[in-house]
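To: structure subgroup
Subject: Chain for Friday's discussion

All,

I'm putting the inputs and outputs inline so they're searchable in the archive.
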Amino acid sequence: MTSKLTEKKRLKREALFETAFDLFVTKGITETSISEIAAKANVAKGTFYLYFKDKYDLRDKLIAERAGELFDLATEALNKQVLPTLEEKVLFIVHSVIDSLNSNKILLRFISKNLSWGVFHDMLVTGGISEQDFTFYDAYKALLEESGRKFRNPDLMLYMIVELVNATCHNVILFQEPVTLEELKPELDGMICDILRRQEI
């Protein structure tokens, strides 16, 4: 009985997520009402508040879920590779995320427009809304530990890499400006490696 109830809750939450995502990317967050999200998701308006404080809380959790999925997929793919250096592993994850966003430009627009470091950091550390015990942040810390190298401020290092990728890839992926993605990648790789080197103790 409990598992049926849990599954029912999960399906309602997923319906709210899917509906909100569609409305947010087509109408914008400001123009989308909670009543509209609930109605299109076929749930009562009161049910919305069982999962979210307001539509901005929903937006943040939605970003956390979608971004978390990208990083989980990248980490899973990395685990199938044999890469000797920390730089190669970090760049592999970055390229995996970039390639995923390049193939899903609607998701890129949504995440890039609404992503804040607070939301992103919360997603990394807590796993966002997922119920898994091992988060991408745990995987990141494990990568640093496995490298045997020490860094002054791992959180700052991750922040700089995320912000660099977010800032440089948006226009390149959406408009191929000022260069193509393939032209950007080697430049981005060099800058990420520089961040790692500068942070190393």
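Points worth raising on Friday:
The chain has ten helices and no strands.
The first helix runs from residue 2 to 27.

D.
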